[in-house]
Amino acid sequence: MGGITVSEFELPIKIGKIEYTNDWPIYQNFDPAQLSVPAVIHSDLPANLNRGLLEDRLFVTPVSSFAYGTRSDDFWLLPDLSVSAQNAVGSILLFSRKPVAELGSGTIALTNTSATSINLLKIILDKRYGHQPEYVSMDPQLDEMMERCDAALLIGDHAIAAAQRDTGYIITDLGLEWKEWTGLSMTFAVWAVNKRFAAVYPELVTEIGEQLRISKQRSVADLDPVIHEARQKMGGSHEYWEHYFRQLWYDFGDKEQQGLALYFQYAYELGLLDHKVNMELWTDNMMTRVNE
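The chain above was modelled as a monomer; its predicted structure follows.
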């Protein structure tokens, strides 16, 4: 990792936000103007947030779990924040003409927007079913994907929109597949902080983490504002969106860490990661050590 100087942390600090609906409850009551250092929210696709973090252009952001895993030693994780699923996730969906257990060595179209979901699919197909299909990266357009391939992976709002159509395809929820197979939850995104940024702004890192957790707690206690915004943008009923947000899990406790650790272990065993991942969480003790 290249050296980073204080001057490279341009103000206002950009705080990443996933463009999809799945992290809205964490940000619904978060106002960066209330932080002690000038900051703004930078909303983008997961793949762009991942690149921003890995290329040292974005220093505090949600990222796909896999992207974090590729360079985990360079980042702290903010505690108690994730986009996880204890069962079905509702927005990481495989569309196919055959059940997933029968896909064999066919061709699967992959959305080009999330390495975590892509590699989760590869892990499930290889480790659970013994499949080694051919993978093709395509734009997230279900009809075009299925014209060329036997199955198609969509994530986020593209998956939600496709699932609401009567396509006739079998829909496999990868969160549910993972839970039925491993008995564990699956964490799709974590909140990562560049360690060198944290060394310069330790109080800000703690402040951002606390404010995001407070926002999350308020949103989970009253989802109506989030649901209203989702209906305005995406359509659908109040009941649909309440079920969607309720089935997601935004904590990152011991159980979520255990599930993610197993994901990283399998990714390493399949050669998807070239090193074992040791997750490190930011704590007040870290802030004290930085200030010493």
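Residues 1-6 have pLDDT under 50 and may be disordered.
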